[in-house]
């Protein structure tokens, strides 16, 4: 480039004359530098585990299997399982399956009379913690359930290590929240206070 920083016609032509392999080498080189290592021409291709790939239910299923977790697939195709007696789902959401959500439900329910204090417990948690988002829902029968979810947009893909961290984070922080509820509410919640 000339001193002014503008590209010349020859520079532009050089960029357009790159064949597919040269372009791939340049892109892989940039990705490797960002991921922590430089690549020189002629080296082996980029390690696939370092490249973010699209989120999918299959990838979550593979993670569950590698982790030795028992799980099920419901009639909607959603993956779920029990952790410490609590139901968790692993959802792939969004128009292009770009959102990961780990959603848990406390293994206890409460009467409607307990709704206000459970909402206060959820709000207190949300004020002090980034994850999970805690909330209470009233079912059609009037019982109250408390839920927690960790939601992450992975529009640009996710590596296997990143996916592992996100799924573990959803399970761990959700369990921490539910443990805090167990400590705060040792009494039966199915009776009015």
Explain what the structure shows:
With 193 residues, this protein is of the alpha+beta class. It is built from 5 helices and 6 strands. The protein has helices spanning 9-16, 20-35, 57-67, 115-128, 160-184, and strands spanning 72-73, 79-83, 86-93, 99-110, 133-138, 144-153. It has a 6-stranded antiparallel β-sheet with strand order 1-2-3-4-6-5. Strand 2 and strand 3 (86-93) form a beta hairpin. The longest helix has 25 residues, at 160-184. The chain is elongated.
Keywords:
alpha+beta, elongated
Helix content: 25-40%
> Helix/strand/pairing class, anyone?
alpha+beta
In spatial order, strands of the major sheet run 1-2-3-4-6-5
Q: What is the radius of gyration computed over CA atoms, rounded to a whole number of angstroms? A: 24 Å
What is the distance, rounded to the nearest whole angstrom, between the alpha carbons of the first and last residues?
Answer: 76 Å
Discrete helix count = 5
DSSP strand count: 6
| Contiguous runs where pLDDT drops below 50 for at least 5 residues | 7-14
User: Largest beta sheet, briefly?
Assistant: 6 strands, antiparallel
What order do the helices and strands follow?
HHHEEEEHEEH
Mean pLDDT: 85
């Amino acid at each position: 480039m000339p001193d002014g920083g503008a590209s010349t016609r020859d520079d532009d032509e050089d960029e357009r004359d790159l064949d597919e392999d040269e372009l791939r080498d340049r892109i892989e080189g940039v990705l490797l530098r960002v991921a922590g290592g430089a690549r020189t021409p002629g080296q082996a291709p980029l390690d696939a585990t370092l490249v973010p790939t699209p989120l999918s239910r299959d990838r979550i299923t593979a993670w569950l299997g590698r982790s030795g977790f028992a799980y099920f697939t419901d009639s909607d195709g959603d993956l779920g399982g029990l952790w410490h007696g609590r139901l968790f789902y692993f959802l792939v959401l969004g128009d292009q399956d770009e959102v990961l959500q780990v959603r848990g439900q406390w293994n206890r329910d409460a009467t409607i009379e307990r709704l206000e204090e459970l909402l206060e417990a959820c709000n207190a948690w949300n004020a002090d913690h980034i994850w999970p988002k805690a909330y209470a829902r009233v079912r059609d029968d009037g019982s109250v359930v408390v839920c927690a979810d960790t939601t992450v947009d992975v529009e640009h893909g996710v590596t296997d290590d990143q996916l592992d961290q996100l799924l573990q984070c959803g399970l761990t922080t959700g369990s921490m929240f539910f443990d805090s509820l167990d400590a705060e509410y040792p009494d039966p919640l199915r009776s009015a206070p």
